[in-house]
Amino acid sequence: MSMDGLPKELERLVAEARGAGDWGRPADYIPELAKVDPAQVGVALCLADGTELGAGEADRPFSIQSISKVFSLAAVLGRLGDDLWRRVGREPSGTAFDSIFLLEHENGRPRNPFINAGALVTTDALLGGREPRQALSEIMHLVRAAAEDDDIHIDKAVAESEKATASRNMALLYYLQSHDNLLNPPEMVMGTYAHQCAIEMTCRQLARAGRMLAMLPGVPAMISPLRARRINALMMTCGQYDGSGNFAFRVGLPGKSGVGGGILLVAPGVASIAVWSPGLDGYGNSQVGTWLAERIAGYTGWSVFAP
Ligand code: GLN
């Protein structure tokens, strides 16, 4: 199918989303995120032929939050390889992103690297015996190189805001520690994790960083094709937490959400897509962003479940 009509369709979808009025609510458990105006919507795409498209607030930076878990996972797999899987599983959890429930039943081994418990283990593994700034600069290097853009930074106010209200993640960390599944002090892992979550990116930068997962031709070879395929599988099965099944049903593409309202989507070999709208649904995934992703997949026919 020709994508000639896509730029116009993106404008139309953004206008429709703006008119709909029901934005969902921005995350408020991180006070700094609650300040963001929910009435915003952005989208950006990178296509296999090198075309880049954007509509709405495609150039407004937002807090990528849990989308950073994709980048920390890619970095740690590069460093440790499959050893990571001794400490964290690869199954969907069916529980909320910040749940502690399954950890108790499964001896402190988180179900997957995208729920908070699993992401905290991933960050702990990335730290190894190093200082937080070394692990963070490794993530920043990966993100900037993948996006081919050095103008990507961490919003310190968001990181401090998360650290100041981190009781639940601290509880997860102490629980992991009690099962000998934490190498570093909980405060150190929490600080590193809060900073990686506070990376600010625009839809355009995020779509560019996602090209490595979509394995688009001519993009910086940051990760091997096998690793990209496996990360995509985890995004498909676990990327939206207990909303992952419904997301697969509605959108049909691997995606990773963040409570900042962003979603990174991958159409392997075809496109990398970033959508953003700060209001969330009950699972902590962007409400309008999911709708937009569904409509883009519907218009283009992109799906990992169809030819
Ligand atoms: N930093 C957030 C947290 O740990 C990330 C959660 C998310 O984006 N789902 O609570």
Automatic annotation (TrEMBL):
Catalyses: L-glutamine + H2O = L-glutamate + NH4(+)
Lineage: superkingdom: Bacteria
Q: Which UniProt keywords apply?
A: Acetylation, Hydrolase
A GO molecular function for this record?
glutaminase activity
Which enzyme class?
A: hydrolase
UniProt-listed NCBIfam families = Gln_ase (TIGR03814), PRK00971.1-2 (NF002133)
Quaternary assembly: Homotetramer.
Report the protein name in the record: Glutaminase
Q: Which organism is it from?
A: Mameliella alba
* Name of the gene: glsA
